[in-house]
Amino acid sequence: MARFASADQANPPPRGGIEFIGSSSIRFWESLATDFPGQPVFNRGFGGSEVRDSTWYAGQIVVPYA
Q: Could you tell me the superkingdom of the organism this chain comes from (predicted)?
């Protein structure tokens, strides 16, 4: 979560962007922007996460971008 906060300070995600959350399958999705051309996508995947983890951290990784 600290990594996301630091990255947001340096380069904030697009306003109204489409957020992808999940496990390492999302985290290592390097072609996300290419796979969704013209869409303001950003990645918030974190390794080993499960749905309950995304719920637990929603206040840090989802709500700020809503």
A: Bacteria
